[in-house]
Structures
1.
Amino acid sequence: MEISQRTNHEIDFQIHGEEMQCVEIELDPEESAIAEAGSFMMMEDGVQMQTIFGDGSGKEQGILGKLWSAGKRVLTGESLFMTAYTNMSHVKRKVTFASPYPGKIISMDLLQLGGKMICQKDAFLCAAKGVNIGIEFQRKLGTGLFGGEGFIMQKLEGDGLAFVHAGGYVMEKTLIPGEVLKIDTGCIVAFTPSCDYDIQFIGGIKNSIFGGEGLFFATLRGPGRVWLQSLPISRLAARILTYATTKRKEEGSILGGLGNMLDGDGR
């Protein structure tokens, strides 16, 4: 089957690194990439930065349309503004974007994936100009009340390349029709819209009180493709906060004091 022609900018890229990755994007003259504020790492001479207000697609919008699209992005945890990087020179130039925490960068060709992807609300890193970054509401009542991180998600639409970041190790799974995967809501990075997304209750009083994994989990029913992360940033932040605010009881008084001195916390 012949693949339709792209309308978004066509960009070349290379992902560098292992645990702390960055993506290097090569721009032809007058090509552009869009990125979230704070993801920029470096660029070659000849690339021009421009702040844009809206969804990043580059489509003509009135002020109300731009406010609406920017407001939707705020609901997904992103800033009001995005940055466009355009090659204004007559030769190819490169711009590099870095992942904000340890993990992996995933490249997604939206043309090959049907033109739309649903992602965790803070997963988007950068994309070719023309890709629309919006909001995806999960309309089911159970999902809305108990989905936690999974209720408001990002929506990437277009036919260009988009890049999302994930924490820890990334697993990709292909679900056949009717196949169900039960997942911690924070571990979902992205999935194709063909997957049916829902939230289910973990039955059993022992699970509810002693399970330690919460009362609810997400379910994805195939057909479709799913990307999962082993270490959601929310889980990492919770562990760090617990460690920083709790005294180490597992160490004896002598060893505990010695450990604190070695850590620079001795008084």
2.
Amino acid sequence: MRYVSTRGVAPVLEFDDVLLTGLARDGGLYVPETLPALDLAACQGLSYADLATEVLGPLTGDSIPRADFRQMMADTYAAFDHTAVAPLKQIGANDWVMELFHGPTLAFKDFALQALGRFFDRVLSDRGERVTILGATSGDTGSAAIEGCRGREAVDIFILYPQGRVSDVQRRQMTTVEDANVHAIAIEGDFDDCQALVKAAFNDLQFRDRMRLSAVNSINWARVAAQVVYYVHASMALGGRPLAFSVPSGNFGNVFAGEVARRMGLAVDTLLIATNVNDILTRFFDTGEYRTRGVTATMSPSMDIQVSSNFERLLFDMVGRDGPRVQGLMDNLKQSGGFTAPEDTFARAQQTFMARRIDEDATLAEMRRVHRETGEILDPHSAIGTAAARQARIDRRIADHVPTVSLATAHPAKFPDAVKRAIGIHPALPERLADLHDRKERSITLPNDLGAIQRHLQTHARIAQDAS
């Protein structure tokens, strides 16, 4: 498998180099040169771990022998609490939720990041190397990345999160980890600021090379690839029919994984992007204009994002994989805050994608409705997904006969205040996390300043210490 950058300048790489590189050296994101076709017949009746081997294995090329890869997937998904790993629950005549929160940190990010930690271990062990992971989180990526990388000898991990803009549970899942290779950093800013700092650090090539920076955000292709599996899992569970998926979206990685599955041959009717009031994606798919606005803090903080990094991967395909053209559009975004998609490419994207904006009142109403009608308790992100699906049915944009799967991206106990506000119930954490609020926190607060971040890494990363 060969991978190319969305901006067309960085070198073509194999999977293991893409894994360790994260962001391409030209500032773009890596995507497969060509996608392998799914063998849907071979996918039927498999356990989740075996399905991951079947779907994800070809995307890794020859980097990991198949027998070893199969064992890695078995180990990865053995850590999940539910035997189905990603169970589906019916909540309407032709509507399901797929629960993606049964992993170690109770969020969908575990599906990729539990695998990613093992990929890093394998590749770095084979090479005898060490890396410094730098990532940004709007809430769930950070804890899942830390859980996947904690205690690993070849990795130091530094996670930036927006101070005061994640839930208490999300923060504590990052700050109470005792392993010495884990560093949680609160940034005086919002998630877009955190994400911009990470990209700026990677684009400082001298610093990047000296620190051996690698990424766990969904700018790392391996993250997106691992999420393709649960789309195939849903299709197999529902008989292989064309499905509509409603995906709570902020950084676009989760829904882009569904697009990858579609391009690999999965029967996908619609990919519905469900946003909160930070609705840059909804505005784009309604109008063709991609333009940033200020970030509004909401009860669904993992979606409080205005610059959706993975959107560049879709844009690359929309403009015929023209790297210089992507570079020009991204330059416009940086310089003037936005751009307008060419009409022909926008029309093609609308054939698969649509988007809906769900505000705070509608989110609370949806949490109440689902609980009243089904007994299920949804976190606010997941409720945005089911509310968007319901809207699309009412609008006739998704036909009644098309099965719709809404992705439940986080356990309700990660957002207890929102759940209690909606339905009067304070959801309990699983027993293994029952003492989370009693654990000692360990973190540092830094300004929204690249120099401060770089100095902190140079002081605390083992690669820098070894070099000195």
3.
Amino acid sequence: MRHNKKFNHLGRTASHRAAMLSNMAVSLIMHKRITTTLAKAKALKKYVEPLITKSKEDTTNSRRVVFSYLQDKHAITELFTVISQKVADRPGGYTRIIKTGFRASDAAPMCFIELVDFDENMAKTAKKAKRTRRSSKKATAPAAEEAAPVAEAEAPATEAAETAAPAEEAQE
């Protein structure tokens, strides 16, 4: 019987899978966000979250346990100094998986996995007001007529700015 032996083998041998997850975990710790397939991201999440929890307690034993999984001194230093301070008050859920579509070559579902507390773009983005169909028709019809001349007036200014920026970069 194969009770309680359900996990994704990712089409690899055990040693290859362990090495791949270790390398992906090091990349995630060092870069804070990596792009990969959805299956690998889910496997990586189960692999790296216990290591981040272990890093909250900075002891010699916890460093040795995490080093046995990662085998990278720089990643261990980053994990125990920078990341453990950011996630100190978080009870879990240190990573986020965001789907990005399908890969062109083989249509594999792609995503990026990132450390939650290190994403500045998601924290700064303001949420837009959700419009219904009825309100958008009434609200946008008069506003669209008024906004159209303004948008056309702003368009040449932005084009001029875009053409000026590459010229400045070329001089440097």
4.
Amino acid sequence: MSDRFFAIPFAVAFSFLSSSEFRASAQEAKQMDFIDAHVHVWTPDTGKYPLAPGYKKESMKPASFTPEELFKHCKPAGVGRINLIQMSFYGFDNSYMLDTIARYPHVFVGTAVINPLGKDPAREMDDLAKKGVRAFRIHPKLSEQTIDKWLRPEGYQKMFAAGARNNQAMACLIGTEALPELDRMCTAYPDTPVIIDHLARICATGVIRAEDVDRLCAMAKHKKVMVKIGAFYALGKKRAPYIDLIPVIKKTVAAFGPRRCMWESDCPFQVQGEHTYQASVDLVRRHLDFLSDDDKDWLLRKTAESFFFAK
């Protein structure tokens, strides 16, 4: 059910509170509308939703991460809406993600994976737009090219053109070594929305290199490029509260502006071992002191809302 459904009843229900109590309640309600820009879900039911060639049930770790299991983590942290990312287990078959969106249309939108080398990827994008798909995950392995030419296949030209036409993003799972070729395509297709996942995996090795940060920040010259700030469990020292990542985040947000940065958890991987969902949210809420409250609202809600949930 839509969060907007509760807007008027909420105001009426709390009309008897003092002004300070009402502000606190309103702030709490606002925090319940955070948006997670990056989550994977899957089901153990491989009969109904077969795995792609090369994957086995043992590949699924955890064995299950359904929407209902996700809600146990995200709802207590104030996250009410989510952009789902097609899981690699399913290859180009987006059925489980699409069925999940159809079950919870006010909660989920999706980022699909299609074959850029297929017969008509642009038509697939058109068709999937009607089913709640707002973006398409792309990465070098899909193109069967070297890293310096990973966007050269003709199918990517069709996808970038369709992305501009439909306002559907190219969601890039890449490291900084893939950015020069993306830079070329963004120059050729300046109206195509582009999202760079996981801070372009900067410092995934545990080492923060200034040249990697500079290369990512240089992409800010393209006005349609956005960045996901998250997957903290996999970056830097890989330990909560993840404050070693603050300098990288600060430079990235300064380059792109908070209106082109969006927080992501990368669940379920964020909730394994010692890592928690709340710790990922709290890095933005409690530790990024260089951001104003409004800036944090853009990272935690408004950037993703303006793109993924725009009416």
